Amino acid sequence: MKVKICGVTNVKTAQVAVEAGADAIGFVFAESKRKINPDEAKKISISIPDHILKIGVFVNETKEVLESVYKDVGLTHLQLHGDESPEFCHSLRFPVIKAVRIENESDVHRITEYDCDYVLVDSPAGKYHGGNGTTFDWNLLQNIEIPREKLILAGGLNTENVLLASELIKPVMIDVSSGVETGGIKDEKKIKSFINKVKLGGI
Q1: 116 in active site
Q2: Residues 52 and 25: beta-carbon distance below 8 Å
Q3: How far apart are alpha carbons 82 and 195 in whole angstroms?
């Protein structure tokens, strides 16, 4: 199972994550305490191996900005965490991950509206559109036909709950941000522990 460490803001954290076995690094370009500018993200992007996915997180951004940042930073995917329509996602020239916030069963059915490279399921929005450190009712995903090879699970995951969540949902990738932080800062020990749990914990 793949692991994405999201909200990375410096080269050292990215390299620690990659060395620990992360498959993807996420850069947040939307309003967030983890927001990064494209120039800094590019420095991180060029410091990590080509096979690592480099994912930019955006909220209700214009097509022009999305495609410009994608090329400038060297991203592999655009993660759209706002109110982007299926038509808008389909209009983009680059690989798209559409985030869907799950609060009730009707939200779950929205997943099937998006024909994207991946769909990321996350908790309802708090102060920000993601990275709020809260879970959602994973059982809501039990009775819907979702291509698991396209499903990314996010929302309040940590070393204590990630095995249970993964067993229930069986996503292709786990996305973590606040769950590997201490005091709002990425914690190298927590990053290593989380990745080890996912990779070696029987998943």
Answers
A1: no
A2: yes
A3: 27
How far apart CA 33 and CA 169 sit, in angstroms, is 28
Q: Are the C-beta atoms of 106 and 92 separated by less than 8 Å?
A: no
Residues paired with 77 in a beta bridge: 55
> pLDDT class for 130, splitting at 50, 70, 90?
very low
Cβ(34)–Cβ(7) below 8 Å? yes
Domain annotation for the chain: domains and CATH numbers: 2-200 (3.20.20.70)
CA–chain centroid gap for 127, Å, is 17
| Residue reference for tokens 């949902």 | 169
Catalytic residue (choose from 39, 122, 137, 175):
122
Rounded Cα distance between 126 and 124, Å, is: 7
Report residue 178 as tokens.
């606040």
pLDDT, tens digit (0-9, with 9 covering 90-100), for 81-127 = 999 999 999 999 999 999 999 998 888 888 989 999 999 999 886 55
Tokens of 172: 């292709």
Q: Residue 185 corresponds to which amino acid?
A: I
Do residues 124 and 155 lie in contact, with contact meaning Cβ atoms separated by under 8 Å? no
| Residue tagged active-site, from 6, 23, 89, 116 | 6
Residue 24 phi, psi (nearest 5) = -150, 145
Catalytic status, residue 72: no
Q: How many CA atoms lie within 13 A of 69 on its CB side?
A: 25
